[in-house]
Every structure is written in structure tokens, then in C-alpha cells.
């Protein structure tokens, strides 16, 4: 294995252009590039454009991912176990198995 220097995108470019530059350097397919960029855009929109993604951490990522697994906004209390969980009308098996 050769020791290639780590690729660094042009810091003068906007975030999404840097992402595309890195993906193209690593020869990702165009569809993969589109998918990655779409997820990044969804993440930034979900966070309300408050901070740059490089300044966000684990808690913001967990909040974003939880929103996709548990899309319901309200928490309800399970009367049998006294635990709080999110309910969704079309709750899948994964959502039933993973409680918060």
C-alpha cells in the first residue's frame, strides 16, 4: 500500500463544493455523491442553519437520526412500564423495538 498524502479540499470553496470535491477525488459514483449531499442538506436544514456542520457534535447528530427513526413529535408514557416513548401511526417493527 502506498503512502499517499491525505486529500484536503480547497478551503475557499463552500461546504457542499468541498464535499463534492472529496467524493470525486475518491471516485464515488454520481448517485452516491447526490445521496451524500442530500443527507448533508437535510441535516443542515434540520438544525435550522444555526451552526456550521463542523461545529456540531454527537448530540446534534443523534437528534437528527432520532427524528428519522421516530418522526412523531409527541412523547407518551407507557402505563405498564412508566417509560416515555415516541409513537407514530405507522410504527414499524424497528420503532417498536427501540424505545427511549
Distance between the termini: 44 Å
In round numbers, the mean pLDDT is 78
Low-confidence stretches: none
Helix content: 40-55%
SSE sequence, one letter per element = HHHEEH
What is the radius of gyration? 19 Å
| Shape assignment | elongated
What is the total domain count?
2
The assembly state of the depicted protein chains is single chain
Proportion of residues in extended strands:
5-15%
Question: How many strand units?
Answer: 2
Structural class designation: mainly alpha
What is the overall number of helices? 4
Largest sheet data: 2 strands, antiparallel
Neighbour order of strands in the largest sheet? 1-2
Features:
100 residues, mainly alpha, two-stranded antiparallel ribbon, 4 helices, elongated
How does this model look, in words?
The chain has 100 residues and is mainly alpha-helical. The protein has two domains: 10-69, no CATH class; 71-100, no CATH class. 45% of the residues lie in helices and 6% in strands. It has helices at residues 15-25, 30-46, 58-69, 93-97; strands spanning 75-77, 84-86. The protein has a two-stranded antiparallel sheet. The N and C termini lie far apart (44 Å). The mean pLDDT is 78.
Amino acid at each position: 500500500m502506498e503512502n499517499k498524502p491525505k486529500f484536503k479540499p480547497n478551503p475557499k470553496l463552500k461546504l457542499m463544493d468541498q464535499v463534492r470535491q472529496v467524493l470525486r477525488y475518491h471516485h464515488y459514483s454520481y448517485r452516491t455523491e447526490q445521496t451524500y449531499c442530500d443527507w448533508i442538506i437535510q441535516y443542515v436544514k434540520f438544525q435550522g442553519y444555526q451552526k456550521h456542520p463542523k461545529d456540531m457534535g454527537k448530540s446534534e447528530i443523534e437528534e437528527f437520526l432520532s427524528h428519522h427513526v421516530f418522526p412523531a413529535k409527541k412523547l407518551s408514557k407507557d402505563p405498564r412500564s412508566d417509560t416515555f416513548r415516541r409513537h407514530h401511526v405507522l410504527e414499524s417493527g424497528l420503532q417498536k423495538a427501540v424505545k427511549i
